[in-house]
Structure formats: structure tokens, C-alpha cells
Amino acid sequence: MKKETGALNQGLKLNYKRTFLIGFAFFGILLLWQVYDSWCPTFLTDIFARRMYNISSAELKAGDPDKILNVQWIVGIIMACDNLAALILLPIFGSLSDRTKTPIGKRMPYILVGTLVVAIAFPFIPLFFHYNNILGMVIMMAIVLMFMMMYRNPAVALMPDITPKPLRAKANGVINIMGYFGGAFATVLGIFLKLSDYINSPDQARNVWTIEIPFIVASVLMVISAFVLFLTIKENKIAEEIKDEMELGEQLAAVETPIDDDKPMSKANRKMLLAILAAEFLWFMSDNAIGTYIGNYVIYYLNSVSSATMFLTIIGGVASVVGFGVAGIIADKIGRKWTISSGLAVTFVALVVMCFVTPTGQATGAHGEYAFPSLLFVVWAVKGFGMALVHNCSFPMVVELCSSKKIGKFTGYYYTASMSAQTLTPILLGLVFKATLAWRALPIYATVLTVLSFIVFSTLVKNVKAKKVPNAKGLEALDSGD
């Protein structure tokens, strides 16, 4: 077995093969989130429409569409309650995994248990919805979210566990690309198994397999991804092999003051951490608002076929892959701060354009849906690229501020900020919908929050670059190790 040697003499180089394999963890995460975010808000909208008005959401859309907006605040509360549980559990599992020692590593036990429970529970969400059992559906959603948190924090912490600090932006790009491949599986299914066809059909004509298959496929692929991860990533062995590289990475970290576990966090590093988390909270408020409500926005406002949402996801995903591919290179040139700031500025432009998108009015399809406004595809591509720059560099900036002993804990901080945003934003935007009765409030809301995050990040976060290291060249650069 070939070992990675000579790191101190030859400089640091990213092990792309190993990073790709770690990406299977993120593959499972985005696969599940894509299905969850694309289907569940519409499930909740339909089931609460029945509870409040005794008719389906499709009948409301045809007769009194404003009532659809009236139930969005309840949809937001349910989505937020799941996120609230995640907000509590993510830091707990992060800290626990930091202190865990087992023959298979400190993260792997949480990944395997979380995957098993989620894979079993996930397909029950559409089943309970189909039979109009709101209690069963919400309980299954809660179980999935709670055990996904057991999986998510340790899975994400795997990358910085075994990647030196100066290389984490590039590594994060690789694992995010893997994650988007996971989301693509669910997206393709959504194109052929149209949720809008199910929602717009009479009760007796609704085919449960239309909504069940994506959830089953997500569960199966998630188990496969965890199995691949378990077979290929031996945490303890890798940690021992790259000990010298990790130490060199600590010396070259992009921090104002050196990290010392035996001393309190420095004032400068603490200020940096809080500023990053505050800006992250705001951009997740914006991004999650779009992600949570875009399915309903397409079905109930644009009156278009739901598969258009999946095409949006594909286009945004392709643009994101490009963004993840170049973000590390851009960060090497201008620093992570200005890479993120540029991403927020690009996203702002896309959201401003979205504010002016309206239904086309041209009927098409079996249920009289309108033609989908093509401008929104451009918006999604630009937004996907911009947010890829943001997400690629933000997590490495957070874990840059801790030692290898606290990666799970600081990963918990990162997800505390994001999940706090995802807890608050569905409720807040749901109330905005209720007050304005206007779906166009969605892009306006997201635009305002993006501007605020840009202001906080660009003014309070310093652009500290990692110290230069000699790059591997030639044949050596192609040697990814075993």
C-alpha cells in the first residue's frame, strides 16, 4: 500500500481520489434534501387545504387561490419544527463524534446508524400523505430529520478531518459536486413522475407510486452511498498516515492568530467566527426561502407543471458544479472572503431579475398549466453559480478557526447558523405570504436578505489568506495516493 510521504518537503497536495470517496457522504445528504424539499411542502399544502377548507389544493387553486397562500404559514411552521430539532441535535452529534473512539473511526458509527433509520422511515412520508394521515406524515418527517442530523454533522466533518486546512476549499468543491450528483438522481425522477399531475388529479385517480418511487430511490441510493463510504474510508488509518500533513496545514492556516486548544479562542478569531456565522445565517434565510417554497411557487403562482421545478434544479445544479469547480481556484487568487462576496453579488443580480418574473398566461398541458417563463432558467443558472462560490468557501472558513480536535464542534456551529435560518425563514415568509397574499414576495424577501448578508460579510470579515505552499507539479500532481 502506497503511503502519502514527504508532505513537509514537497508541499501539500489534495488527494482527489480520497476526497471523491468522502463525497459519497454528501451525495446521500443532497439526495435526500432534494426529494424532501421538492415534495414535502406541497404535501403539507395539500393536506392542510383539506383540513381547513375540506377540498384539495388543486380545487382551491382553481376556485380561490388566495387560500393557498393562507395555509403557507402552517406549512412553514411544520418545516421549521423539523429544523428546530436539527438545530438542537447538530451541535450535540458534532461534539459527541469529536470525542468518540471506535475501531471504525469517530464519525462512521453515526453515519451508519443515521443512514439506516432514515432509509427505513423516508418512504413512509408519501405513504401517509397519500392516505391523508397528517399525524403519521409529520412524525415520519421528524424522525427523518432527527436521524439525518446524526448522519449529517459527522459526514460533513469527515472532509476537514483528513484534509489539511489550505486545501479545504478545493476539497469542499469536490464533495459538493458529488452532492449535486446525488440531487440529480432525485431531480430526474421528478421530471418523469410529476407531482403536479398527482396534485391536480381527483382523489380516486391519484397513483401513490408517482410520489412513492422518488422516496424509495432516495433511500436505496443513500444506503449505497454510506456503504461505499464505509468500505473505502478507513478513518483511523488515514488519520495516522497524514498526521504530518495535518500539522503543516495548521501552520499554514488562514487565521489572524494561531489556534491553541490549551488557550481560549483569541478575540480576533472569535470576531471572525461570529461575523461569518451571522452572514451565513442571513444567506441561508434567503436561500432556504427559495428552496422551501419554489415548488409551490411554480405550481400555485406560475401555474406551471411541477417538472419545471426539476429542470430549474438541473440547470442550477449544473451551474453550481461549475461554481464549485472554480471556487477553490478563485479563492487562491483573491481569498475566500472576496470569493464569497462575489458569489453573493452574483446571487443578488439573479434574485432582482426574479422579482420581475410573472406567469405567462399561455395555457398548455392536460390541466391547463401556463408555459413556464424561460427567464427563470437563466435566473437559476446565475443564482446556482453565485451560491456555489458562497457555500464552497464558507464552511472551510469556519473550520479553519479550530484544531482537528474540535472539527465536529465547529461543524455544529456552522449548522447551528444555517439551521437557525432554516427554522425561522419558512415561518417568517409564510406570515409574509399571509399578510401580502402575493407570491412575488418570495424573490423580494430573498433579495433583501442577500443584500444584508453581503453587507455583514464584506464589512466585518477580514480577508486572511493561507500562507503559500509549494504546489505539486507534473506527474507528482497526478499521484493521489491510496
**Widest β-sheet, arrangement of strands:** 1-2
Number of domains: 1
Largest sheet: 2 strands, antiparallel
- Second rung of CATH, namely the architecture: Up-down Bundle
Low-confidence stretches: 1-10, 469-482
- CATH hierarchy, class: Mainly Alpha
Distance between the termini: 7 Å
Query: Oligomeric status of the shown chains?
Result: single chain
The gross shape turns out to be globular
Structural class, by secondary structure, is mainly alpha
Count, helices: 20
Mean pLDDT: 82
Q: What's the gyration radius in Å?
A: 22 Å
Our estimate of the beta-strand percent is: under 5%
The CATH H-level homologous superfamily: MFS general substrate transporter like domains
CATH-defined topology: Growth Hormone, Chain: A
SSE succession: HHHHHHHHHHHHHHHHEEHHHH
By DSSP, the count of extended strands is 2
Helix content: over 70%
Please outline the helices and strands:
Layout lengths: L6 H4 L5 H38 L3 H7 L2 H5 L1 H28 L8 H14 L2 H7 L3 H28 L6 H25 L2 H6 L7 H25 L2 H7 L1 H9 L15 H35 L5 H28 L1 H19 L8 E2 L4 E2 L4 H25 L7 H30 L4 H20 L13 H5 L4
Antiparallel strand pairs: 1-2
Helix pairs in contact: 2-5, 2-8, 2-9, 2-11, 2-14, 5-8, 5-18, 6-8, 6-11, 7-8, 7-11, 8-18, 9-11, 9-15, 9-17, 14-17, 14-18, 14-19, 15-16, 15-17, 16-17, 16-19
